[in-house]
Amino acid sequence: MKKFGRSMMTGNILLLLGVLQTLPISQALYEDQIGKFDWHQQYVGKITDMFWDQSFNAGKRVLVSSERHVLASVHSHNGSLAWRKVLEDGPRGRIDKTLHSGNLLVTLTGGGRFVRKWNAGSGLADWEVSLPGSKSGRADLVQCGRDLLAVMIQDAVYGLDPRSGRQKWSVALPQSNQVVYTHLFTSGTNLFVIGQSLGQQVTRVTVDMEGVVRSTESVKAPWLSESTQCEVTNGGVLICYRSEDQSLQTLTLTDGQVFKSTSLQILGLEPSEEVSMETVRKVEEPLIFLRTAKNHMALLELTNDGVKLKKDLPSICAAQVVSLDDKSMLFTLERIPGELKMKVYDLETGSEMADLYQTITYLPQHGYPQRIEVLMFKKRDLRLGCRFAILSEDYSMQMVLKAGKIAWRREEALAYVLSVEMIDLPVSENQAKYEDEFGSHKDDIATMFMKRFKTQISQLKTYIQQQLQKLQGHRHHHHDTEAMAESGSDDDDEDLTRDEFNLNKLIVLVTGAGKVFGVRSTNGHIEWEHFFPELAPFDGNNQQKLLLFVQRTTAHFPNPPQCTVVGKHKGTGNGFLFSFNPISGEPVDTPPTGQVLNYRITQTSMLGELDDHFLRGILLMDPDNQIHVFPGKCLSVLKKTFGSQYMFVADRETGFIKGYRTVPNQGKFLMENVWTVNLQKKQQTITQVVGKRPLEQVHSQGRVLGDRSVLYRYLNPNLVVVVTEGEFIEQSQRGGVFNTINLYLLDSVTGHMVFHCSHKRAKGPITVVHSENWVVYNYFNQKSRRLEMAVLELYEGKEQSNSTAFSSFSSPRQPLVLRQSYIMPLFISTMATTVTEKGITSKQIIFALKLGGLLALPKALLDPRRPLVPTQETMEEGTIPYIPELPVNAEAIINYNQSLYNVQGIHTSPAGLESTSLVLSYGLDLYFTRVQPSKMFDVLKEDFDYFFISAVLLGMFVVTIATQKLSARRALSRAWK
Amino acid sequence: TLTDARNSDWLGVTRVLVDGGDYIGYLRSDGSFVVNELPSGSYVVEISNPNYIFESARVDISRKGMVRARRVNYLQFSDKTSMSYPLDLKDRQKAKYFQTREQWRITDFLMNPMVLTMVLPLLLIMVLPKLMNAADPEAQKEMQSQMKAFNDKSTVPDISEMLASWFPSTDTKKPKHKAKKK
Q1: GO biological process annotations for this chain's record (chain A) (predicted)?
Q2: Residues A279, A288: contact at Cβ < 8 Å?
Q3: b/e for A265-292, b at 16 or more Cβ within 10 A?
Q4: What separation in angstroms does the CA of A307 have from each of A272, A300, A319, A883?
């Protein structure tokens, strides 16, 4: 937080303009590069509600609302988004209920605080009404006839006009401080509000269409508990499921006085742990689905005498009742290996409708289908046709338009990416042979020569083949595209081999849905996928984490690369591991369904050394401080190097950070606590712990100053940034509670506190970028009400203590810490820094703007050595004079007009070219691109004019020869004179 | 509560973000928006549109419900340049995301100062003697004799020829100019 005079500033700005022009502030794209190496995928998140659009052009679109606060319209023919509205991220944007019928699309959000009507065709808002909101967070919305919308919140019911949103009436609900109102239902000319009082009763309030309370009754229900699930079916029956004695309790809303109990056993159903109910809305009869397992459902009919089993649906995983022309049909989906069987039954007769039967190819990695949404229509020949969308366990949405075939699918799990790695593709077979030569030392010269000769011949052969293919390319390609259009498949048949500059990678994405994807970086197509229904992320303090380790890279041919996902088992909370080859996706070392450990994981780390097969083992620490090595064969490495294995655990609950070292104990390895730092949980909570990227490449050890001396960097690989946020009460006369932020730089091996700073009147959310010898972080300055960006740089000083390797035990004196802060004029959601192969290229910091852009700014702008008053010396050093506000221009936005919503992280990875860094931003959208922070200095630009250069060269050559001839002739003629 | 009216075709992709999306306003078909239920405080209203850059505004809502709008100034929070309220936010400019490709134009080449400094003297050397020659035959003779004397004196070996014989394919600029000067 700097103070500055006005006059000084204007001077600086003038100077800066001069400097900026010479400095490559940004490298922008050219317009013809759009889509050349970037791709963008838009998601909506796990779909909670889905409707076939009935308004705009019926059947052409599907309206969905999702868990990630998104309301969207999806084209039914190809799965692309017609429009998407992303609501607020916090509780304000949570969608409580979506209602769609006819032209009406209304959402209730924020716990009953906002009712919005949307235009289903364009996604624009028609009207918005704000209500007081529900204290319990339960709210409901129903439509009663053409001109009344009723909204229930905890203490009142409101009647709204669906055309204008005008409030027609409001009714206060009785005893709203004791009764939790949960359901709103309309039947005939009355509205019924259902309230629950745990262990006592169910309250039923009847309100008529004019907003007058007709009656308030309570029905005894002493069995009502937290785990009781209740639903209201069409026809006005309240049905509750008690998990304690596996019974169903029903109450007719219009005149029922007591609950009627029916046990599941009497119905002939197998009770289980996970019973749930799914309402049937499309027919008038009081029907409800009861789900007892992922693949067992039952259709129940509710009568005045209780519950009747209409149809038991064993091995059915999704079902829906649809009616068309007064005919009700039951659609059921059954999963058999590789396929889904869809059977349709006539509800009245119970007979199967054979003409609608179909089987659909279905990949096992989608898990069980959970929901099906059918659209029935009459074909021209008056036969029945249907289209349906399937929602599966892995958050995917699939659409069947023509019988038996999935037209498209949306992998909504990709909106929940938690970990990313970019893996080098393997070299081609030829190249591998070539490498092989250097691997073996047993061969004599003759065989080696033969080997070399053979590989080079085969290389020549492939080269010639490639050239031939290129010549014939046009024709072949044409055929290919035609074939592709017919089959509708995408061209994923090109094999996965490394390109010339190693720019194309395979991106491994681990998602919170328990799904792991391998995605090509060239086009974003999914190469392989695995789904683990039991895999869950570690979560603490609202931060979800699934860890992805690269145990072996692609560089160790013939050993295949290997990655491992570490998470926890959903049911037990124990560790869950899955190891795989990231290129092919095949499981290695662990079973294909993942391996469940018999202990919980408190901390993980990687071994410092590789084993004989270049595999880097993973260390897992259990709550008893015992160390486990995965895979087991890496234990020998730990035996050798346990002296240098340290770990630390930052506990958010207690505020303690504990450091551990490894000690052998009776053939096992235990972690022994060596240091403890107490960060005072009472005052603050740990929100961020950020280490450096392991094995980071730093090219330059120091920085040359204007006076030709070198300022050496403090490059401690064990340095960790710990951020805590807290509140403090101001002592001054005004008083009030303000937020405070503390930043600690800890050596994670020795526990040595390298640096500490504190920002008062500042609040998060904080993002920290920690790389090389610097830390960049942002916070919100509450005093000046602006976002600020602070930078810390650590230097050893003018002398370097140890130039070969850094050791935390003989660490240099307290490093010199330089710091400055800047104003960030735009709101950001996260940030990251670029990385390159050798770390020579200057760094850029990529900010994900809340406005939707990815802004890339050079690190030189966030340099604490930027002088307030530029002098000769600072000019020589090349620092830009200090101005408080960071410059933002549109050319620095690397995703141009492809706006990204709710970015949660940015992953950067080096490419084979030193100038290039690969960037993947994830969140609700995925966006991949390349950046060149110092422009492309190692390859000719793609618009390099070969023709012009060769023409000039040739011209020069011709002129030289011609003039030489001319001058010789002239000299000769002169000699004759 | 805020309102705003504006004509635009980009309604579908435009969002109104209050404090970076903590609160969002949704556009209606006439381009107006309302953000309801804001607690008292100071907010920054920004418009997010993929293709245009919009001006932003700071809106202060007092505890009593008084609302005022002013220009966003992060440097000096106390800057009170007020804006009309209800807000009427206009687009400032089209966002220029792309660099234009450098194109090779003959005028650029000719107007380059380097080229100018080289071409002008060359012109003087080549054209001026011709002009003088045409003017007066006697002067021409005199010149010729002078030139002869000059040429005779310069018995220094011709570099251009030497170079040309050494590297038949070199194409340095030097030989060319030497040759032309004769």
Answers
A1: protein folding in endoplasmic reticulum
A2: yes
A3: eebebeeeeebebbebeebebbbbbbbb
A4: 18, 7, 19, 74
Concatenate the DSSP letters of all residues of B14-26 into one string: -EEEETTTTEEE-
Q: Does A208 touch chain B (CB under 8 A)?
A: no
Read off the pLDDT of residues A136-145 as tens digits, 9 standing for 90 and up: 778 888 888 7
Q: What is the mean pLDDT of residues A829-855?
A: 90
Q: Which of A299, A304, A290 lies closest to A321, judged by CA?
A: A299
Residue of B89, B98, B108, B176 best to disrupt the A interface, most CBs of A under 10 A: B98
Residues 6 or more apart whose CB falls under 8 angstroms from that of A447 comprise: none
Domain ranges of chain A: 602-678, 941-970
d(C-alpha A642, C-alpha A626), whole Å: 13
Q: What spatial distance separates the first Cα and last Cα of chain A, rounded to whole Å?
A: 86
Helices A429-439 and A445-487 sit at what angle, rounded to 10 degrees?
A: 160
**Residue A569, amino acid:** H
Q: How far is Cα B33 from Cα A126, in angstroms, rounded to an integer? A: 10
Q: Least CA distance to A952: which residue of chain B?
A: B171
| Residue A649 contacts residue A603 (beta carbons within 8 Å) | yes
Task: Give the sign of the dihedral formed by CA A447, CA A452, CA A453, CA A454.
Answer: positive
**Measured between CB atoms, which of B26, B29, B99 is closest to A85?**
B26
Distance between CA atoms of residues A502 and A914, nearest Å: 11
Residue contact A124–B12, C-beta within 8 A: yes
**If we measure between CA atoms, which residue out of A237, A288, A241, A232 comes closest to residue A264?**
A241
Tell me what the mean pLDDT of segment A200-204 comes to: 85
A124 has a chain B CB within 8 A of its CB: yes
Is-contact A744 A755, C-beta < 8 A? yes
Q: Which two tokens stand for residue A314?
A: 């064993």
| Beta strands across the sheet bearing A61-66 | A47-52, A61-66, A70-75, A81-86
Helix (H/G/I), strand (E/B), else coil: A968: helix
Residues A677 and A689: beta-carbon distance below 8 Å: no
Tokens 């390319």 label which residue?
A: A473
Which of A85, A88, A124 shows the shortest C-beta gap to B21? Answer: A88
Of residues A53 and A774, the one with the higher pLDDT is A774
Asked if the C-beta of A28 comes within 8 angstroms of chain B's C-beta atoms, the answer is: yes
Here the tokens at position A648 are 């630390």
Q: For residues A562 and A588, is the Cβ–Cβ distance under 8 A? A: yes
Q: What is the pLDDT of residues B90-145, one digit of tens each?
A: 777 777 888 777 776 777 777 777 777 888 888 888 887 777 665 566 766 776 77
Partners of B46 in the β-ladder: B17
The answer to whether A725 and A766 are in contact (CB under 8 A) is yes
> If residue B38 lies in a helix (H) or strand (E), which one and from where to where?
none
pLDDT tens profile A408-421: 889 999 999 999 99
CA distances from A936 to A844, A912, A920, A921, B98 (A): 14, 13, 19, 22, 16
CB–CB of A395/A46 below 8 Å? yes
pTM of the model: 0.84
Helix (H, G, I), strand (E, B) or coil at A454: helix
Neighbouring CB atoms inside 10 A of A133's CB total 18
Cross-chain Cβ contact A125/B13 below 8 Å: no
DSSP string, A772-822: TTEEEEEEEETTTTEEEEEEEEEEEESS-S-SS---STT--SSPEEEEEEE
DSSP state for residue B126 in the 8-state scheme: H
How far apart, in whole angstroms, are the C-alpha atoms of residue A568 and residue A596? 8
